[in-house]
Amino acid sequence: MGTEPEASLGYEALVHDTRVPDAAGDGGGALTSLEFTSGTQLADVIAALVRVFAEDPALDSVLLAPDGRPVGSTARVRFEQQVPGGDEDDQESALRGGLGAGDHGVLPGTATRFTAYRYRCRQCERTVYRIAADLEPPSCPVAGHGAMRMVP
């Protein structure tokens, strides 16, 4: 008897461009990434993306990296179309409707929120957001740049 395939958590619906930049930055447009564990709920990924886009109004897209493995990027324009009220002042709206709320399977009670921590390369300004902070700082993919530093 085979094992059941793991259920999709829905973050795949946020991927608009499956190109992934190589170490030199070629092959995809997103130089800012969001790292999270594959078990992170879609609502928490959405809330983190709302924060990331709110912190940098010039940012066009964010590379999604579940378990540190880049899968593609989400574009600001498409993200804002998918998530009603996708601004930082109204993070709860992403939980009330839109992407990820199709079955209305929200449990009662206060939602547990994760914080997205920001890391930046000291040399090239590449940025990585992580939902988990108990890991070693990410390394810049550009050879010789080394570990990124956490910034507020």
Walkthrough of the structure:
With 152 residues, the chain is of the alpha/beta class. Helices cover 16% and strands 17% of the residues. It is built from three helices and six strands; from the N terminus they run βαββααβββ. It has helices at 42-55, 76-82, 93-96, and strands at 32-36, 61-66, 72-75, 117-120, 127-130, 149-151. A six-stranded mixed sheet has the order 3-2-1-5-4-6. A hairpin with a 6-residue loop joins strand 4 and strand 5 (127-130). The longest helix is centred in the first third of the chain and has 14 residues, at 42-55. The protein is globular and about 40 Å long. The protein starts with 31 loop residues before the first strand and ends with a strand. Mean pLDDT is 75; it is low at 1-8 and 87-97.
* DSSP strand tally: 6
Mean pLDDT metric? 75
Low-confidence stretches: 1-8, 87-97
Rg measurement, Å: 16 Å
Distance between the termini: 50 Å
Largest sheet: 6 strands, mixed
Query: If strands are numbered along the chain, what order do they take across the biggest sheet?
Result: 3-2-1-5-4-6
Give the DSSP E fraction (strand runs of 2 or more residues). Answer: 15-25%
Query: Number of helix segments?
Result: 3
Provide the succession of SSEs.
EHEEHHEEE
- Helix fraction, binned, reads 10-25%
Report the principal-axis shape.
Answer: globular
Class by helix and strand content?
Answer: alpha/beta
